[in-house]
Design brief:
FAD/NAD(P)-binding domain, 5 domains, 7-stranded mixed beta sheet, binds iron/sulfur cluster
Length: about 750
């Protein structure tokens, strides 16, 4: 588009008091812009001033020098056909002024702040010049039908919710009938006041409602053989349960095997790598997939002292439910919630609030079926969230149910029954219980843990990757965007996503159904789903210069890139979450978005004025992840916490999108250090794009070697992890880095 620029400087919110507006105007005019100022740009009058320029002068690219780009988004939205760029003068400068000290008096603080603000204006002007209006990607044909995998409570609910919202749905179930594990339940947890009474199962009504819905096609004894394509254009092949097809991926794809597939090294002797990427031409069309394949009970046989598999009448909670439904509940039962012995405080793996509540429910069966029955619940932790606390109290008030915190040391056969030896940690006594049966609280393992594959026809392989980050759960981010798996368009709910009770499952499945609908609607509009929902940009490739190195295809956290028959990346834009990791990975720098690309950020870096000969004015580039670090900086500013005046911050979509050439750009411009601020990884993993900051950390190790070879100290570049709520620490993190580099002295290439 032919651009007509309009630049505007806000003098409100303390900006006018902290900064010299004439100086800012000068910085904009260096870039050919003649900014107007206003005392409150976000006010009706301020926006009318901008709108008048749009209407009367044809301005279509607006540079707003005011508050953080994270706020006032609606106020400064002048329509999808306009570009708006923001310079963060308020949080970035005026609200985060350095503290006046004896060493740095008021004049110096003001001078430094002014220089920072002018750089931000220059950077915004350059950004405006380098930004193009995104043109949303449109699929040639789009299908909005939803496939629900799994016919238990989660799948039934998701199917009904999507159908009620007007979607066409196909629900598949591997077993020969709908219902899943709920078919085997004797009773359900309480769902209403007084929250103490077990309820009759409602699964039959749920099945009937699904079977009666004209929008839902039910296919039992059916599994997925193959899922190819992308959101809005999935091609799915179904098969009878248990049968093999040529598309079948290995049942269990281990980390090494998955890695081999993803690197294109695992070639099937008959069909080659195409086995993993080819789509069945006769497949069915779907727009999105709801993964509701549930959970499986954990194996508890490793705890030899508890006798499972060796002693009769030592069963799991899942087995006990079946016995209870058949009316075979003995009179004295011990429910062991934690393995005890050497495990100390630990519960069984994948135990949770549901396994606590199941023990309470099953203890009630003992009392229901035996007038003199006794149930002993031996726990390290009981978890009964929300109204289930009343259920817990009800069980405590039951004369025949005994709850105690205990470390079980062994179970053995004795006198035709079982003896449970334990240390009662409340009474601090060794106790032996004589019971008829022992029930072990086997945890709920998501089906994706042991079977990570859903037979995806993706270049990165048929399975969800990096499941170890979340103990086998397929989420891409538990907290910020539930349901989203690491395969865009596939939405997990119920036990496959998290251990949850029936009510929680119903809520969850409804949410996943809505996410699936949102996904196909977003694909229809050509915009991204979470976390950049509504983003109309997508990565574009200049393939003429592609060396087919495959770094982009391997590093894309969402498997959005396949290969074509020659090995060149084959983008699937509706799978893409717009993180830019591919852009950061590409050594040829041929991947970019219309509004976020290597040249744009590099040019912004080069727009910063770096004094050649003033040792007090070293300059530091900070690339801050827009999801954690940048909000933390803003929050610090809102609390008026000082920010180092020598830094210049550029928000990036994810540290994974950091192309290392930006570091070279900064250092060759004479800047003295470069700091990458990303989210936490490892056990504290928080990345919205799975492992962007971890990837950046690895790339930084390589850049350190490069700097060393150029005679620059590797310490001039660093990556630090910061959580969104660490606004009180982020200033110190930055200052520490700045001090370390100041110790090294100025960049020796400054001025060259
Ligand atoms: S932007 Fe992110 S999700 Fe999209 S193709 Fe690149 S790496 Fe994959
Ligand atoms: S990273 Fe760049 S050069 Fe390598 S395959 Fe991808 S687009 Fe081509």
């Amino acid at each position: 588009m032919d651009k007509k620029y309009g630049a505007y400087i806000c003098t409100g919110c303390g900006i006018g008091e902290a900064l010299d507006i004439e100086g800012l105007t000068g910085a904009a005019s260096e870039n050919g812009m003649a900014p107007k100022s206003h005392e409150a740009l976000c006010s009706a009058a301020g926006r009318e001033m901008i709108q008048a320029d749009i209407d009367n002068d044809g301005v279509n690219t607006v540079v707003v020098c005011a508050c953080s780009p994270r706020v006032m988004k609606n106020e400064f939205n002048f329509g999808d056909d306009k570009i708006t760029i923001r310079a963060n003068l308020r949080e970035g400068v005026a609200w985060s002024l350095e503290t006046v000290t004896e060493a740095r008096g008021e004049d110096v603080v003001k001078e430094y702040a002014q220089e920072k603000a002018q750089d931000y204006v220059r950077m915004a002007c350059v950004q405006a010049k380098k930004t193009e209006l995104p043109v949303p990607f449109q699929l040639e044909t789009l299908n909005k039908k939803i496939l629900v995998m799994g016919g238990g409570i989660a799948g039934l609910t998701a199917a009904k919710a999507a159908a009620d919202a007007g979607s066409e749905v196909t629900i598949i179930e591997a077993a020969d009938k709908l219902g899943g594990k709920a078919l085997g339940w004797r009773k359900q947890f309480p769902t209403k006041a007084p929250w103490t009474n077990l309820e009759e199962p409602t699964i039959a009504e749920m099945i009937a409602a699904v079977e009666a819905d004209a929008n839902i096609t039910v296919k039992t004894s059916t599994e997925v053989a193959r899922i190819g394509g992308a959101p809005g254009a999935y091609k799915v092949t179904l098969k009878p349960t248990g049968t093999k097809t040529e598309w079948d991926a290995p049942a269990k794809v281990g980390v090494d095997e998955q890695d081999a597939i993803s690197k294109g090294k695992m070639e099937d002797p008959n069909t080659g790598l195409q086995k993993y990427t080819a789509v069945d031409p006769a497949a069915e069309d779907f727009g999105a997939v709801v993964l509701a394949t549930g959970w499986n009970p954990a194996d508890v046989s490793e705890y030899e002292h508890l006798g499972y598999g060796k002693l009769d009448n030592v069963v799991t909670n899942a087995q006990f439910e079946k016995l209870a439904k058949e009316g075979k509940v003995p009179a004295n039962v011990a429910f062991i919630q934690s393995p005890g012995a050497e495990e100390n405080d630990n519960d069984f793996p994948y135990c949770n609030s549901v396994t606590s509540m199941v023990a309470l429910k099953q203890a009630c069966y003992v009392r229901e079926d035996n007038a003199e029955g006794k149930a002993y619940i031996l726990y390290q932790h009981m978890r009964t969230p929300g109204n289930m606390e009343m259920f817990y109290k009800g069980a405590q008030n039951n004369d025949g149910i005994f709850l105690t915190k205990a470390t079980v040391t062994g179970v053995e056969a004795e006198g035709g029954g079982l003896a449970v030896h334990m240390k009662d940690t409340l009474l601090n006594e060794d106790i032996t219980l004589n019971v008829d049966m022992v029930v072990l609280a086997a945890g709920m393992i998501p089906t994706t843990k042991n079977k990570p594959t859903i037979n995806l026809a993706y270049r990165q392989g048929p399975a969800f990757l990096d499941l170890d980050i979340f103990d086998g759960y397929a989420d891409s981010h538990f907290i910020c965007f539930p349901y989203e798996t690491r395969r865009t368009g596939v939405y997990a709910c119920g036990g496959v996503r998290k251990a949850m009770n029936m009510e929680e499952t119903i809520d969850d499945a409804t949410g996943a159904a809505l996410k699936a609908i949102q996904c196909v609607e977003s694909a229809d509009r050509g915009v991204a789903v979470h976390p950049r929902s509504g983003d109309g940009s997508y990565p574009e490739f200049f393939f003429q210069r592609c060396t087919q190195c495959k770094r982009c295809t391997e590093e894309c956290p969402f498997g959005a890139l396949d290969d074509d028959e020659k090995g060149t990346p084959l983008p699937n834009p509706t799978r893409c979450r717009r993180c830019g990791t591919c852009m950061g990975a590409c050594p040829e720098r041929i991947i970019g978005f219309k509004n976020y690309n290597v040249d744009m950020i590099g040019s912004m870096v080069k727009a910063i004025e770096v004094p050649d000969d003033d040792e007090d004015k070293l300059r530091f580039m900070v690339f801050a992840c827009e999801n954690d670090a940048y909000p933390a900086l803003d929050m610090a500013a809102m609390r008026k916490l000082p920010q180092n005046a020598l830094i210049r911050v550029i928000p990036v979509r994810c540290l994974g999108s950091m192309n290392m050439v930006w570091i070279k750009d900064a250092l060759s411009s004479g800047m003295d250090g470069v700091l990458l601020l990303g989210c936490k990884f490892g056990d504290d993993y928080q990345c919205h794009f799975v492992k962007g900051s971890e990837i950046a950390d690895k790339r930084m190790a390589n850049i350190g070697e490069t700097l060393g070879s150029l005679g620059l100290e590797p310490e001039r570049c660093a990556a630090r992890q910061v959580a969104i709520n660490e606004y009180d620490k982020i200033g110190d993190i930055i200052n520490e880095f700045v001090e370390e580099v100041i110790e090294l002295g100025p960049n020796p290439f400054k001025g060259f």
